[in-house]
């Protein structure tokens, strides 16, 4: 993922005079980040996810950034006139994979979710749990840069739930972003870079969930930008602290486990940032501010 997706002053209401479901929402989702969205029933979580996935447009405000996006809806249309293998291979091809690679990816994802036995069964005949496996596989088959999951774990058996958690970790480690809603507060506990709560049409954002990582070793990254350039906004979601140290240089302290995410964000910014130094915090001798 090269660029963040950013919602700026976004509002959404259904119908010209309908009540505002979301209003004044500002949210940036950067490369390599995992964001949890929570909130009461009917608060607007799915609305926010559909906006992020660009399946819906805001009534006001702006959305920027167009990563390759995949979405698992809360309700997957199970009765599609395909077999899982045919459907996934077709989607792989739509995502630009050559025919054989698409067929291989389809098979691999069905195997990962324990659904290979019914790869050739018409989808309309699948159980709810089995069609949910196809729903998550269809989102992963094209290696999306942004993965949006609306209650995607619901209906999966335990091994498939664990596999989806692994797939999420793989996506973020590869520099992709994942935004998810799940009714189980333990889902991916401790992993999200931020949790956003939809309440009264507004979004309250809490950074963190990386307690263990922050308690671990820290890395100091010194970077230099072009005159007057601003750090990409999602950098603040990864670093523990940051300070400008003069001459366009910034000294950023980041959990060592997240330094790859920070470096990727800086190097893929437009224009890219020059990395002056990366040292373990214990060896960082100067430039403290
Ligand atoms: N297409 C639509 N047309 C009209 N109203 C809608 C539409 N989609 C959502 N709404 C309304 O917007 C509000 C927020 O719905 P949304 O599905 O985004 O909430 P949610 O937090 O995901 O809910 P849940 O937790 O029940 O899934 C609700 O009042 C809902 O009725």
Characterize the structure shown.
This protein is α/β, with parallel strands linked by helices. It has a domain at 212-283: Alpha-Beta Plaits (2-Layer Sandwich). Helices cover 26% and strands 29% of the residues. The protein has helices at 45-52, 84-94, 99-112, 128-140, 158-173, 211-215, 259-267, and strands at residues 5-13, 20-29, 34-39, 60-64, 69-72, 146-150, 177-181, 194-199, 202-207, 218-224, 241-246, 249-255, 274-280. The strands form 3 sheets. Strands 5-6-7-3-8-9 form a 6-stranded mixed β-sheet, sandwiched between helices. Strands 11-12-10-13 form a 4-stranded antiparallel β-sheet. The model has no long low-confidence stretch (mean pLDDT 88).
Low-pLDDT parts are none
Bound molecules: adenosine-5'-triphosphate
The run of helices and strands is EEEHEEHHHEHEEEHEEEHE
Please give the share of residues in helix.
25-40%
* Radius of gyration from the alpha-carbon trace, in angstroms: 20 Å
Percent in strands: 25-35%
Domain ABC transporter: 5-225
Keywords: ATP-binding, Nucleotide-binding, Transport
Pfam families: ABC_tran
Protein name: ATP-binding cassette domain-containing protein
Summarize the structure.
With 289 residues, the protein is of the alpha/beta class. The protein has seven helices and 13 strands.
Q: What is the topology?
A:
Blueprint: E1 5-13, E2 20-29, E3 34-39, H1 45-52, E4 60-64, E5 69-72, H2 84-94, H3 99-112, H4 128-140, E6 146-150, H5 158-173, E7 177-181, E8 194-199, E9 202-207, H6 211-215, E10 218-224, E11 241-246, E12 249-255, H7 259-267, E13 274-280
Helix pairs in contact: 2-3, 2-4
This protein binds adenosine-5'-triphosphate.
